[in-house]
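About this split. The held-out portion is used to measure sequence recovery: a designer receives only the structure tokens and must propose an amino acid at every position. Recovery is the fraction of positions where the proposal matches the reference. Here is one held-out target exactly as it appears in the evaluation file.
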């Protein structure tokens, strides 16, 4: 009988339900004429010459099955009521269908049908990971065999991974030349190497030429070396549960750069730690932590919680996104930059920052280790260990939990987030107005927030690379004002800005952006645009429109600011 399906609408992942259920309602031929496989345990029975029932036996075919030749012989003799010496058994030359043999896999590998220790310990398993395209070919048959032969389900949960396609969403095919060999992504391959491998394939000349053109279009410079960790991490960033993955080698290369980022952050940390460094317990350093120390520990706590929740729901894109954000945006882009100057000192403040930095890097490595085991292990072996932690490898180190890092502080994160908004605003103004280092002032009418921002002014000045940044209660003369929040504003001194030249340049950019917007709007206003224009072109137009509209709004605001302050 087919398995019971849940009530209600069926998810897209089970789109093959109807075709799969038809498998249950027709006979299944389990024999195959192959060179390899499990021999079918069935024998044809015949009488030896000289037996009085010889002619009768030759006129009909009888088959018996058994776990061994002797068992089959005994079964045949009992059914025919003759002595075993009068019978001759010939085993079938066919082998079992691959799906039949693989359906036995969960328990056969542990010694079944014998009741072994491994079978008692490891069967049933917890989780099966497979593709949605073989739910009925394999998964359902494993369930059927497990229940029939052992009386138990072979696993409790099934995780369905995505089907990998090329960057254009096409199914990988040798004739298209778009097959991505994982080894090529890991080790790298030149375009000449890719072409050379086509010569060993049994393709006709026309298909080979089509494959060469496809490879030249997709990989004009070959496939860059990305490494195992980057490839694994990339695949886990894509959505799963039946959705196809359009694998782009450029995306894998992006995460190879992420691996470099982790390596560089670890190298910076090792260089910042003294030779005799021994990490202090967390409880001893929390009281002396600065605002940025407490902020990065709060980010570590929140990241750990999100990642553990993601593992509970098998939501790997959420996990990889949280890991990437913590390492790049929180640790490298903000915290490391904010403590570089303080680490050069030889005071208690530097000691605390070194301990916090070590804690974040060590915990960050443990967080990323399931996805990047080689990189994390290499760095882990170089990091100083805590006295209470003596794991020989990161593979056996406990995974971080919120209980280990209970330092989440939502109020602090909101205030630091505002200071980072100010940093981003300063960077944007310096870039837009061609200012190398501006001088700014912050006006805030909230007493508590003003105190936090006042402490963070040196950090904001460091991160934004401005000349000076200070808190003020009164707005200075000749300043360009921009609102950061409802109770906070940033004032930029006009003496740093060449207003006429900057205004002229911004107005030229705005005119060019307006022209681009009008061109796309004209293309989208033609008759039957939705019917005549291909979907990929329409999507490209929508993306261009969003970018141009954002640029137009930003440039218009900058021009208006300059005109009101001239």
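Reference sequence for scoring:
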């Amino acid at each position: 009988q087919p398995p019971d399906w849940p009530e209600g609408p069926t998810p897209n992942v089970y789109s093959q339900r109807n075709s799969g259920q038809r498998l249950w309602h027709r006979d299944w031929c389990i024999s195959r004429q192959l060179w390899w496989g499990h021999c079918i345990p069935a024998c044809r029975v015949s009488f030896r010459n000289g037996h009085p029932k010889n002619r009768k036996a030759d006129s009909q075919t009888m088959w018996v099955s058994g776990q061994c030749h002797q068992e089959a012989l005994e079964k045949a003799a009992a059914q025919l009521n003759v002595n075993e010496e009068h019978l001759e058994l010939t085993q079938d030359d066919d082998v079992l269908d691959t799906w039949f043999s693989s359906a036995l896999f969960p328990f056969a590998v542990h010694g079944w049908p014998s009741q072994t220790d491994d079978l008692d310990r490891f069967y049933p398993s917890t989780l099966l990971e497979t593709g949605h395209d073989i739910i009925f070919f394999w998964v359902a048959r494993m369930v059927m065999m497990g229940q029939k032969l052992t009386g138990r389900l072979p696993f409790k949960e099934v995780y369905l991974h995505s089907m990998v396609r090329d960057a254009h969403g096409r199914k990988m095919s040798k004739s298209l030349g778009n097959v991505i060999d994982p080894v090529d992504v890991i080790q790298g391959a030149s375009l000449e190497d890719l072409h050379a491998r086509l010569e060993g394939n049994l393709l006709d000349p026309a298909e080979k030429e089509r494959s060469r053109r496809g490879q030249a279009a997709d990989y004009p410079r070959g496939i860059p070396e990305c490494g195992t960790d980057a490839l694994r991490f990339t695949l886990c960033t894509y959505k799963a549960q039946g959705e196809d993955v359009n694998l782009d080698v450029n995306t894998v290369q992006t995460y190879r750069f992420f691996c470099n980022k982790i390596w560089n952050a670890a190298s910076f940390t090792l260089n910042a730690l003294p030779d005799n460094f021994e990490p202090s317990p967390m409880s001893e350093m929390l009281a002396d932590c600065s605002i940025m120390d407490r902020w990065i520990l709060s980010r570590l706590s929140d990241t750990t919680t999100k990642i553990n929740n993601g593992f509970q729901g098998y939501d790997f894109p959420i996990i990889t996104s949280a890991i990437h954000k913590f390492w790049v945006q929180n640790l490298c882009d903000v915290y490391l930059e904010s403590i570089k100057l303080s680490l050069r000192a030889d005071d208690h403040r530097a000691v605390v920052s070194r301990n916090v930095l070590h804690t974040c890097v060590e915990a960050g490595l443990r967080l990323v280790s399931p996805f990047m085991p080689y990189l994390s292990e290499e760095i882990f072996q170089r990091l100083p260990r805590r006295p209470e932690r003596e794991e020989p490898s990161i593979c056996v180190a406990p995974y971080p939990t919120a209980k280990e890092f209970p330092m989440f502080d939502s109020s602090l994160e909101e205030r630091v987030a505002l200071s980072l908004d100010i940093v981003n605003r300063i960077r944007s103004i310096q870039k837009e107005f061609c200012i190398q280092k501006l001088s700014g002032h912050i006006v805030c009418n909230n007493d508590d927030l003003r105190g936090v921002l006042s402490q963070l002014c040196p950090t904001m000045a460091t991160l934004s690379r401005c000349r000076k940044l200070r808190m003020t209660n009164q707005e200075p003369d000749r300043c360009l004002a921009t609102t950061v929040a409802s109770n906070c504003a940033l004032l930029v001194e006009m003496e740093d800005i060449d207003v006429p030249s900057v205004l002229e340049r911004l107005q030229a950019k705005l005119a060019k952006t307006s022209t681009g917007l009008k061109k796309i709007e004209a293309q989208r206003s033609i008759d039957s645009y939705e019917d005549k224009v291909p979907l990929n072109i329409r999507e490209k137009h929508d993306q261009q429109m969003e970018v141009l509209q954002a640029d137009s709004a930003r440039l218009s605001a900058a021009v208006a600011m300059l005109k009101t302050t001239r």
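Annotator remark: Residues 535-565 form the longest helix (31 residues).
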